[in-house]
Amino acid sequence: MCGIVGVISKAPVNQLIYDALLLLQHRGQDAAGIVTMVGTKCFMHKARGMVRDVFRTRNMRALPGTVGLGQVRYPTAGNADSEEEAQPFYVNAPYGIVLVHNGNLTNAPALKAELFEVDRRHINTESDTEVLINVLAHELEQAARDLPLTPEQVFAAVSAVHRRVKGSYAVVALVAGHGLLAFRDPFGIRPLCFGRSEHGELMVASESVALEGTGHHLERDLAPGEALFVDLAGGVHTRQCALRPSLNPCMFEYVYLARPDSVLDGVSVYQARLNLGETLAQRVISTMPPSEIDVVIPIPESSRPSAMQLALRIGKPYREGFVKNRYVGRTFIMPGQAVRKRSVRQKLNAIGLEFKGRNVLLVDDSIVRGTTSKEIVQMAREAGARKVYMASAAPPVRHPNVYGIDMPSKAELIAAGRSIEEVRAFIGADALIYQDVDAMKRVVHALNPRLAGFEASCFDGHYITGDVSEADFAAIERQRRSQAEAGDEGPDDEHSRLALHGAEEQP
User: The domain that contains 333 carries what CATH number?
Assistant: First the structure.
């Protein structure tokens, strides 16, 4: 999961890209990068860390040009500690290409071997983005055949990329001396949209909030399989480049990943979360009498809309019972489980007044490993709660995700192979209520009936690209064991995925 942006303008774009990346910071905090272009010369700065830490005045001054792109990274493939794997990526032939990518290629190992043995291209990192840029570079070279590059040839190259690449990918690339290219995988799993400012500059970004927050008007989302090419004169060209495109966006974008003020594929993220609260309320009512609940409390941040709607539906007060510390560091970079466990309480602190002597219903957006849920239930009890119930706005997470979310291997998922009662016992709640899978899909789909469906594999086990096997899961298990042995154990729980839960409110 990452946030990407590209801009083509008549004015310098470095500050504009920086501002857009701040608006996309919730999509990744491991690394950030910006590249700009003057003529055919690229200027790049990238490093590990948050946007505000990576880019200083001297770095911004070294990024001239009226065309550029940027990315905030949360790694789901490759080495999280390697600055070499921070994006953008660059290849010098043909033309000179820089690229940023959000998603995950499910056939990256096979492509890597194919690039070396057939295309004679060398991959130097474990990043699937390096694989993707080399596939695109090879196909552009084949399509152009030493002729001047035209939009038709660009679209032919993207069509070839779609035929070769599997998985999820939203891409923005610059082709030196020619223009900006953006395209989306044939299933539209990861989001990508574009819009214009009143001055005519065009921006492509992962979420509409990046457009609106920088003074751009959202025109539309890129369709699945569609490519957008903007030449240096500002001419806009679009083409459907996939044979059988089908819009199946990632459900987890609506549950957790995207900012609530974004609109993805015609669906308001905020409204989607309200609707999830509505159906979750129905599950609560069918599970237990609302009279047993005194107060509904969200676990900040992204569960708030669902919790508010749930409270309204069951006729109980909605209260803020936890205060979040936005300035604590990410827990997963701390050595040892004991330190990570302590940091949960550094992030969240209970307001005793809201818990003392009450039966509280805690609402979270999802439960992945369950370790944070267990700690929060204990915090509620220590704050004086008489009974602690837990409700998840998402269904049980039973399967790994291979499309660009850091969803752990199956062995690490608390709901995998366990009953709801077993999960309840593990987290220590008096009752546990999960969202229903079909209800979740139904209420989000109702907001845009043009959606063909959803990529919801972590909930229903259906991998929409059709190329995911048990061998892939075994490889994921080996990779995570290797990371653990090397001391990089990954995020400790569902709430450290985005540093502070709901990082859209970073100051």
Answer: 3.40.50.2020
